[in-house]
Amino acid sequence: MNNNLLEVQEVSKSFQDTVVLDKLSFSVQGGETFGLLGPNGAGKTTMMRMIMNILRPDEGNILFNGQLRRKTKGLHFGYLPEERGLYPRARVLDMLIYLGSLNNLSRHKAQVEAIRYLDKLGMIEFTHSRVSQLSKGMQQKIQFIAAFLHNPDVLVLDEPFAGLDPINQIVLRDILEDYKKNKKILIISTHQMELAEKLCNHICLINQSKVILDGTISTIKKRFRENAFFIEADQPMGFLHDFKEINILEENNNAYKFTLTSRQFSLNDLLARLKGKVKIKKFEVVEPSLHDIFIKLIQEQAKSV
Amino acid sequence: MKNLWRIARWEFSTRIRTRSFLFNTFISPLLFTAIITLPIYFFQYQGEVSTKLIGVIDLSGQGLERELQSELNRSYRLENRSPEYMILNISLKNSQRYNQLLDDFRDIQSRTDSITILFEQIRDQRAQYFRNPNLPNRENLLRTSYDRLQYVREEKELVEIEQRRFKAALDSLYKHEAKRMADSLLINNVLDAYLVFPPNFLKDGRIQYHSKNPGDFRETDRFEKILQRIYTEKQILNDRIERSRIGRWLQPIEVTKFQLFREGQKEWNFFIQFYGPVIGVFLLFMAIFTAGGYIFSSVLMEKSNRVIEVLLSYANSQQIMGGKILGFGFLGLLQILIWFALTALFISLNIIPIQKIAYLNLTNALYFMLYFLLGFLFYGSIFITVGALSANEYDAQQINQFLRTVAIFPVLLSLIVLADPNSQLIRMLSYIPFLTPSFMIMRIPLSSASIIMDIYITTVIMIGSIILVIFAAGRIFRMATLMQGKKISWSELLRWIRLSS
Q1: Do B305 and A81 lie within an 8 Å CB cutoff?
Q2: Which of A65-79, A211-225, B171-185, B325-339 has the highest mean pLDDT?
Q3: What is the C-alpha to C-alpha distance for residues A60 and A213, in angstroms, rounded to an integer?
Q4: What is the spatial distance between Cα B332 and Cα A236, in angstroms, rounded to a whole number?
Q5: Which of A116, B166, B177, B456 is the most exposed place for a label (fewest CB within 10 A)?
Q6: What is the pTM of this model?
Q7: Nearest CA of chain B to the CA of A225: how many Å?
């Protein structure tokens, strides 16, 4: 399997007087889970529509494996829009065959794949039901199937897990893992940071039409690590305030978050001092959550404007 | 290109199974045809179940009711050969007021009679006196008789004035009372109608026709014809001409209408020749708007539930538009073919008499298809645009309603088209693309002159307009469908048409 690459280079787009995207750049490697993050109205949907060639950028280029996106032929997309909709009166299988055949699957192949996925998602008994007879969650699963039934080259999912129960979330993640193995492009757009943190290994955060953060989760976390530690004991440790070598950031009952202020002072020294005084229940390096980083960055940007 | 067919196939196959398509194909044309033709059928072929009673109030004293009865009997009979109309002279035998007045009048009349007799006696006597010069006391007799004569004459004049006055009162009472009676008979459905002949009917020929529904042209037409004959006959008789000759003069005429076509002449029947094309227009209209309506609702639905985003990421907007137009176009064609097949079936079952309906031929069927295709492509592209632009169903329905009204407008002018299918006005109107299909479908069977030139011209105009509309629709469609819940301004619309992306 060759490794696919989707590059977005300095893409700008405006609708009338509103600038939606301003010189946006990022790239997505095949095989990674790319998270396109941002608050509402940041321009995520417009970006995705441009990747799918529904809209064209005013400036800049989108390249797929080095070739201009709008000139690539025969590229197949899977798309799960944020606002879900299907043909309410159609029958499940008929509709899946139709959507599959639009992506060059033969009708027979589309039928086989549709039934395979329906079975996988535990919906085989609804094969011939009308879409409108299904529950909302089931309709969502049908839409999932419609998005990746034809094994697309680029799969774009907008808020994929909203409204799904945990069991189905696991099933879907398995399917996505399988999909990634073929080194294809997978883009997930969401504003649920916990989800992005769990699912993505590369994120790009857009706010007010600009990229404000781009990188793998681990490098981002490294970048935003505050060198802070967390300690929790069986009783209050008010005496910690007397230590000049540490700076307490937060305290909550018997738990404290702190940084070391002196290079000479190590964690071993701290633990030595605590020995015998309290029983330590938990001690860890504090990792910043994506949620915190997101809020911090957006607030910073808001201040600077 | 493949996706175009796939979309067309999908739209075709999902819609053909819907109840609305079955209804529009089988039920509504029958309903339409029934609504239009049944009244005509009843109007023309109403089997007379019973004899109609017609009242007559004759103030002219000509005994018209007998003549009316015999003329009506001669012309109109029921299937069982009994007369269709019975004339009832409205009599006032039972009216107390009238009888009272009539008694008074008779008193006066007898007084007039006796005074006239007296006057004549005196006059005769006086003439004798006058002729006999040897009569004793002649001078005196002549003088006194002269005085008496003078007196009686004056008296007679007075009585005659009173009699005339009474006669007028009596007539007016008669008319009033008779009418009152006739009205009540009419209300109680004893009479179907009544006629009033005024006293000087023979001078000015004025008659009143009273009925609950004077709009029944068939009835009034019959009476007008018959009464005209009676009137003319009376006038001729007054000129002292033999009755035997009059009959020949008053022989009613009967007109059979023929329409001249290039291929020959055909007998003209107003209802068939006129309503045939009108039904044709209705069917054309229905075919265009059924298929167009489907396009419209399909775009609107895909826009509002965002399936369009998925579609646009799988196929481009031209394929989606083209697929819809193609799919629903085939649906419309299928609908028309079903109608043709049904018509053929009805003809073979002799429900529709083929020899009478000249326009049911292959050429006109082909024209029907041509104008369906042109109309459908034109309105279909407009519907796609409207569906894409509409922020919600409500807005969209209003535009839809407006377009329907525009397209059916030619039917309102159908009588003008009938009078002259090739008049300047109608020709100009049929060059307007919105109206072309409806007008042309009416004009082609109605026109006796060849309108092949207009068929070429309108086809070219239609094709030009279709290209224009499809071009604009293509520009608008993608942008508009991605918009959501927002009303799109005209300036935005024009910008989209000018720019390509």
Answers
A1: no
A2: B325-339
A3: 19
A4: 82
A5: B456
A6: 0.69
A7: 39
